[in-house]
Amino acid sequence: MPIEGRKAAPTSRVRERSFWVTLVNQALRQYGMSLQDSSVAQNLIHAAREQTGFVEQGSCSLIWAEAARLADDPLFGLRAHRLFCPTPLNAIGLTTLASRDLGSALTNLVRFFPIVSTQVKLELRTLDDLVHLHLLPQGEPHPQHMEAVMGYLGRLFQQLDQDNRELVLCAQLARPAVDMAECSRLLAARQLVAGDGYSFSLARDMLALPLATADTFLLPRFLDSMEELLANLPSTDLVEQVKRRIHLLLGTGEITVDRVATPLNISPRHLRRKLNQEGTSYEQLVDEVRRESAVRLISEGQLSLTSIAYELGFLDPSSFTRAFRRWTDMSPTAFRRQTLKTTI
Prior knowledge:
Blueprint: E1 15-17, H1 19-29, H2 39-49, E2 54-56, H3 57-71, H4 76-79, H5 87-97, H6 102-112, E3 120-127, E4 130-137, H7 143-160, E5 168-173, H8 180-187, E6 192-194, E7 198-203, H9 218-231, H10 238-249, H11 257-261, H12 268-277, H13 282-300, H14 305-311, H15 317-328, H16 332-343
Parallel strand pairs: 5-6
Antiparallel strand pairs: 1-2, 3-4, 4-7, 5-7
């Protein structure tokens, strides 16, 4: 449901998590090479270390290009998941594997993927009997980076496919058709097609598939940790930073502008002024976060509607019901009933 009244925010520069530089270097070692073998890459690595955990997108792309050149392997990115797996990818993997079923695993994957990469946004789209996981480039990431993400996601799907059902029916790569045979082997995809984007397609009825690795004890602890990481992830997008802080405060009953502004080292008055310049307001962002969280929590089906109301910081269930009707023109009960029908 689109949010009315929001002006388009100015495009901000994209910076990537610097662990990707370590990932590239570790993968290169399997070829008997190192980024230290490139004077260009050496300078970029030094600059990345001075940027407190982030590297400019242009620098990240140059590092990918240098790595593919040093390895003399045009499929270097797609092969990276077989060579090295960094901690952030392992963390999000554990969270998805501990989820109740495949549907909630995919929801958690999309929700927390900014912890892994800022250059790629994941988006789930349902069409007829298929669910498509699209990889949407942010800015202009290098094709090697996009293919590396595809490789790691393909590996995760293999881990989620605990009964050898071949979860991924089809994958798409932005490569010429002549490359598909070798790429298909690396992705372990039943069918791989050439296109203008990156995606995985799964059967919709698989979403209700329970996971043998589900863990009701560990999952809430994983989710709390991932929420904390997401809320504290540095961002050049002020609106995104504020929404992350609001999300962290949901359920405390104290979603005040002061509590959000303080960790950002900005006064509440200045924060309101900056948000106004972005075409929104603090109250509108609170409303957005509550709406997005309400839809997600009801769709997951793990909490009662009363619990969800308090989880979102409402004083009582009736206040939540009125807000949900305003957001969707449906009651929470009707929305849950509709969600259950679409997942059967």
